[in-house]
Design brief:
2 copies of one chain form a homodimer. The first copy, chain A, has helices spanning 2-11, 26-36, 56-65, 70-74, 91-100, 106-120, 124-148, 161-167, 198-201; strands at residues 48-53, 77-84, 152-156, 174-183, 202-204. The first copy, chain A, is of the alpha+beta class. Chain A has one domain: NADH Oxidase. The first copy, chain A, has a 4-stranded antiparallel beta sheet, with helices on both faces. Chain A starts with a helix and ends with a strand.
């Protein structure tokens, strides 16, 4: 497992050319969503929602909200990965299954809920940061889950958030953080782009 | 590879108890950082920096800035994962190796630079969101890279960002987004916490 996991990370590239007309069945879409939501969240907030856009009609609306990018139409499915705001309000409920399973002690859950309320209540900036973080970690996990199915993916930040929200019925508390297109890689995709030298990005302390 | 990658995602848990006094050599820390920065970024901005805190003295300072959380002291290394603001200013330079390698055509790189300047210049909110997204995807990748080495990890959001910035010499453009503690799992770590039912988090469109 060790080397294959590293190989997977090292070899992942963003896919810009997908094979069109290659649908994924809903069971595989569900499996991708299930794996994506194994990502961690602060306090196990699970402050996210995924909209898997895979109908031609849905993809056309999403493509229009994403400046006409063709990969949304060509990919098998485009996930709108949302982070949710004010998630602390639902934290007690979100933690209950962990308490019931004996993984989390009730007093610890209570302390987390109290901490989350104290820090998040009325703090719009923190709620937004938290939504970005959770959705981004889920998006990264989703891309790797796709890779594990032999599929390619592309994280997309170029879209009109208000248009996406309106077209797909997001609530005022749901922030579309990223679109992740998933499908079968076509031809003409480039190699992984070189990264900065380690000396530029890593400091030891 | 397919099933082992899914197994890795499905079995990852946040490690709260590390075996103390189990250092990681700098070559392995570098390998983790190298893998973490294979994560994607918008326009390949690579708007991140990692500070790998592994000296006892450094860990004591970071622990103090993280409300005394013991796992920072016990973990082999605690990475401060920073997102950088105003990254568009350095995008042309960041893309040059991709152009030189023939992976990216110069006119495409020029167009990305123009787009990034048009959208990011003067837009502090977008710069912050982008920093959160890039750092979070790197953090997720880092946790999986650690898993691939047989190590455990924990994403930590509970710290005083200003104190971290002051203690570790971050610039005003470097935002500490997350701490990722990495080390050898000790005893007493719980199972993965249950996630919400798929019907609560996935919508098909």
């Amino acid at each position: 497992m060790i080397s294959s996991l590293h190989d997977a990370l090292a070899s992942r590239t963003s896919i810009h050319q997908f094979q069109p007309d290659r649908p994924l069945d809903d069971a595989r879409i569900a499996a991708l969503a299930r794996l994506a939501t194994t990502a961690p969240t602060a306090y196990n907030l699970q402050n996210w929602r995924l909209i898997a856009v895979r109908s031609p009609e849905g993809k056309a609306r999403l493509k229009a909200a994403a400046f006409g990018q063709q990969k949304i139409a060509d990919a098998s499915v485009a996930f709108i990965v949302c982070g949710t705001l004010a998630a602390h309000v639902h934290l007690a409920a979100a933690l209950q299954p962990s308490v019931a399973a004996g993984i989390l002690q009730q007093p610890v859950a209570d302390a987390w809920v109290a901490q989350a309320h104290a820090s998040h209540e009325g703090n719009a900036a923190l709620q937004r940061d938290e939504a970005q973080r959770s959705a981004s970690m889920a998006a990264m996990t989703l891309m790797l889950a796709a890779q594990g199915m032999g599929l390619g993916s592309c994280a997309m930040g170029g879209f009109d958030a208000q248009q996406v929200a309106a077209e797909f019925g997001l609530t005022a508390l749901e922030l579309p953080v990223m679109i992740v297109a998933v499908g079968y890689a076509g031809t003409g995709n480039g190699a992984q782009k070189p990264r900065k030298a380690l000396a530029e990005v890593l400091t030891l302390a």
